[in-house]
Design a protein that fits this description.
This protein has 892 residues and is α/β, with parallel strands linked by helices. It has 30 helices and 36 strands. Strand 30 and strand 31 form a beta hairpin. Helix 8 packs parallel to helix 14. The structure holds iron/sulfur cluster. Iron/sulfur cluster binds next to helix 1 and helix 7.
């Protein structure tokens, strides 16, 4: 047992909840993490991802030194080359021939330096961030309504509201600690909860009402709500009169949306629509939380404004327990918005197109050529890379080959670009494969900076580990290149505190109109004070104490006339409809235990156990029509390409729609990059791409054989048409399928299961050519090296148990035979797929305990421990119990 010391307070690097974490490093270097009881975002709670952070810190696969054209290089050589190539492109083709594509994973200090270099000194605004893909429509909607990108409320409002409406937000999986706060408030005070989502997600476990609306019909639903609040006289005339404008136009746009028209357009039944409207009308204290289901749409900005309109018209904004609430996907999406990380912004919520703002920033930075026009937004930026307008591109902390829509086009664009730099923590990603220069970045726990969460709370991320070998913080990399490009005077930073101090000073400067963002209290921050900086909400003005803040209860919007705009949002039906060749709608999103493209969460065996393979969730009716069966493989085909994934039949899915998670890449699966199916269609206001509405066809993939394998070392080459691999505690587990049958199964097993230099193993095998079943286990002494199970249908073995045998001594023949059988035998209850990641409790164990009892989630917790640590699995346990009671299959 290692002795822990040096607890360091830091912030989780995953979702926008921004939970505080206490990390401790023991004498032997072992890291442990726990929730920070004093952090106001989570008060000690963590979800499954946050709780497993220590297991993601392995240095395996880390990029440890600069690489130029595949060869190890020194920092000076690499930085000189980057500066020279960017400088050469600018000199020959102008500033708009270069671009940065950065990330909501970056810290605010990284963002600030990147933005200053590109907009203030290179003189182009070609810098955009992957946050464009997750919340740009919220930014546009806020700016249209409020005149600024201001989130009015705070997390506490979810606990003070009488009604919480969740739109396009699977809070239980995507913002789990916020879900837990809401769930606890519901238990204490009976908060009503409405979930508006085409899918019946885990979040619906605490919903009083679920509206499984048709994809893309949200604007009609909220226009109908605006019409209803007007009809029921719950418009707050005083608030509207004093603080808003343009309500008449919005009401005119809403007029066609009576209940029956809303029901027809949304595919909901009329009583469900009426119930939702009644709840909104009857409850003064309403919070509407919305997320990617709203933002990731070609009409995302209109969806946002349609929601904001209902709150502005009823004056339900800025007071405790009221308000619209955009929750962000990434840890520092908000920080990026504040610091000007998007191609159409300047720092501190100033606008690139506002001459007064440009003047303030240019003078403050002492720059000679500030960008005058908005730069290319993410999708347009990669189009410009592909068609040759961008000659040099620097990608930092993101994986666009997987995450951009039309992802194959993004990959081809990188191959066509004359000079691509990628800064990352990992050596091998689908994007690093296309870089001319790779720069090794410091990872979470190895760097210092600040992040802003969804409630405008700025917290410190703190360093508690040394970075391996030559890794460096991202701000340092931009700073060094800026100096080499001749801007040393403007880039004097030696420490992130220097950067925050400058940024805070800029936020204090007078501008040509009112502005919300002000953190001038940090303008003189010293390095010691930076080290001790406590989480605070902005605004945090010089001379004032930090305090929790809300906006707009008394108006004071950031438009010229200080009034909000109630924006007319006529509903337009989606511009693509599934039909003919592509009759289903593809929706993409996250799963509970994975993050983005798995570069971190994919390292933790217990996080990969929840879903070990890429999958498509499909309704039973569509399963019947398409012929794809549960647990079989399916091909998802769009106009752009296809992927092959496991089928999960579930009535949680809306008929006509299928869901595929975003996480799998070519590093973990043969063909599961879902964004290669998604066309690059964007919202005309925000530039955010649509991710929820792609017409697709689903057909069965019918291989000659299916396989499951475990092995001690990660396989380097898997010679099958389908494969998906995930780490297990003592090795790897791989699902396989292939259309051709090998001549020699034992040879295939050895090639797949053993490293090239392995000695000849002991082989235990069973072959039944008639049934097509083959089982091969390879041993060295009393240790299992690997096992392969093959069948003509999906293999039925106890997967978790087989994977566990890699770490067990198998010194008697019976134990070896049980391994070959693939089941523990005896009275041992098989685990099934893992539901509770903290205690590794599987679905079969929960069903066993729940059967024949009046089980509750708490009872399962008492008996098995499941759901009693981070609590992220409690909605699924509840769903499994319901499945046992009703005799139905639990969905994911
Ligand atoms: Fe991290 Fe989970 Fe908290 Fe999000 S909810 S910040 S992923 S611990």
């Amino acid at each position: 047992m290692s002795e822990a010391f040096k607890p360091v307070r830091t912030t989780c690097p995953y979702c926008g909840v921004g939970c505080g974490i206490v990390a401790s490093v023991a004498n032997d270097g072992a890291v442990s993490v726990r929730g920070d009881p004093d952090h106001p975002a989570n008060f000690g709670k963590l979800c499954s991802k946050g709780a497993a952070l220590a297991e993601t810190l392995s240095l395996d696969g880390r990029l440890r030194h600069p690489i130029i054209q595949g060869e190890k290089a020194g920092w000076d050589e690499a930085l000189d080359l980057v500066a020279e190539r960017f400088g050469r492109a600018i000199a020959k083709y102008g500033p708009d021939s270069v671009a940065f594509y950065i990330s909501g994973q970056l810290l605010t200090e990284d963002y600030y330096v990147a933005n200053k270099l590109m907009k203030g000194f290179i003189g182009s605004a070609n810098i955009d961030t992957n946050s464009r893909l997750c919340m740009a429509s919220s930014v546009s909607g806020h700016k249209r309504a409020f005149g600024s990108d201001t989130v009015p409320g705070c997390y506490e409002d979810l606990e003070l509201a009488d009604l919480v409406v969740l739109v396009g937000s699977n809070l239980a999986w995507c913002h789990p600690v916020l879900y837990q706060r809401l769930s606890a408030a519901r238990e204490q005070r009976g908060t009503k909860i409405v979930v508006i989502d085409p899918r019946r997600t885990a979040t619906c476990e605490i919903a009083d009402l679920h509206l499984p609306l048709a994809p893309g019909s949200d604007v009609a639903l909220f226009n109908g709500l605006l019409r209803e609040v007007a009809a029921k006289n719950v418009i707050d005339d005083d608030y509207v009169e004093a603080h808003t404008t343009e309500i008449t136009n919005a009401l005119t746009a809403a007029r066609p949306w009576n209940i029956s028209n809303v029901a027809r357009e949304t595919g909901l039944d009329e009583p469900t629509v009426e119930d939702f409207y009644r709840l909104f009308v009857e409850n003064q204290k309403v919070v509407t939380v919305y997320s990617q289901g709203v933002n990731q749409s070609t009409v995302g900005t209109d969806k946002v404004n349609a929601i904001l309109n209902c709150h502005l018209a009823t004056g339900r904004i800025g007071r405790p327990g009221t308000g619209p609430f955009s929750v962000t996907g990434q840890p520092n999406a908000m920080g990026g918005r504040e610091v000007g990380g998007l191609a159409n912004q300047l720092a501190c919520h100033m606008e690139l197109e506002n001459a007064g703002h440009r003047e303030i920033v240019q003078e403050f930075w002492g720059s000679t050529r500030i960008a005058r026009n908005p730069g290319l937004k993410a999708v347009d930026l990669f189009e410009a890379v592909g068609d040759g307008r961008i000659k040099a591109l620097w990608i930092m902390g993101t994986n666009p080959v997987d995450s951009l829509p039309d992802a194959d086009a993004a990959r081809a664009a990188l191959d066509a670009c004359p000079f691509v730099v990628v800064s990352d923590v990992e050596r091998r990603t689908d994007t690093t494969a296309h870089a001319h220069v790779l720069l090794p970045s410091a990872a979470w726990g190895e760097k210092d900076g600040t992040v802003t969460n969804s409630e405008r709370r700025i917290s410190r991320q703190r360093r508690f580990l040394p970075g391996p070998e030559e890794t460096k913080p991202d701000w340092w990399q931009f700073n060094q290149v800026a100096r080499r490009m001749g801007f040393s005077e403007a880039f004097p930073y030696e420490h992130p505190a220097d950067i925050l101090a400058e940024y805070a000073s800029l936020s204090a400067l007078d501008s040509s109109g009112p502005r919300d963002f002000d953190i001038s209290a940090c303008a003189d921050i010293t390095r010691d004070a930076y080290e001790g900086l406590e989480p605070f909400q902005w605004p945090f003005k010089k001379g004032q104490a930090a305090a929790d803040t809300r906006f707009f209860a008394e108006g004071g919007f950031f438009t010229q006339d200080r009034r909000a705009r109630i924006v007319a949002t006529p509903h337009h039906a989606p511009d693509v409809t599934p039909s003919g060749e592509f009759p289903l709608v593809l929706n993409t999103g996250r799963i509970r235990d994975q993050w983005h493209t798995m570069t971190r969460t994919g390292k933790a065996a217990r996080l990969t156990q929840h879903f070990t393979e890429p999958f498509v969730e499909i309704h039973p009716e569509d399963s019947a029509t398409t012929g794809v069966k549960n647990a079989q493989l399916a091909v998802i085909q769009s106009a752009l390409g296809s992927i092959t994934v496991r089928t999960l039949v579930s009535d949680s899915q809306r008929p006509g729609s299928v869901f595929v998670p975003i996480h799998w890449t070519d590093q973990q699966a043969s063909s599961a990059r879902v964004d290669r199916l998604v066309a690059a269609r964007t919202d005309p206001v925000s530039g955010q791409p649509e991710s929820k509405l792609t017409p697709v066809a689903v057909t069965p993939f019918e291989p000659a054989w299916h396989g499951f394998a475990v092995m001690g070392e990660q396989p380097r080459h898997i010679p099958t048409d389908y494969w998906a691999m995930a780490p297990a505690k003592a090795g790897w587990r791989v699902e396989l399928a292939c259309t051709t049958t090998p001549d020699d199964w034992s040879r295939l097993a050895k090639n797949l299961l053993l490293p090239d230099d392995a000695a000849a193993p002991d082989i235990l095998a069973y072959h039944d050519a008639t049934s097509g079943q083959h089982r091969i286990a390879l041993f060295e002494d009393d240790r299992l090296l690997g096992a392969l199970f093959v069948n003509t249908s999906p293999v039925e073995v106890s997967r978790s148990w087989v994977a566990e045998q890699l770490s067990v001594r198998l010194d008697d023949p019976a134990a070896r035979l049980r391994t070959l059988a693939g089941h523990p035998g005896g009275n041992i209850v098989e685990k099934g797929e893992v539901v509770c990641a903290c205690f590794e409790i599987g679905v079969d164990q929960i069903i066993e305990v729940a059967s024949g009892t009046k089980a509750t989630v708490d009872y399962i917790g008492k008996m098995l421990g499941a759901g009693t640590n981070c609590g992220s699995c409690r909605p699924e346990i509840s769903r499994i119990i319901k499945g046992v009671i009703t005799g139905t299959q639990p969905g994911p």
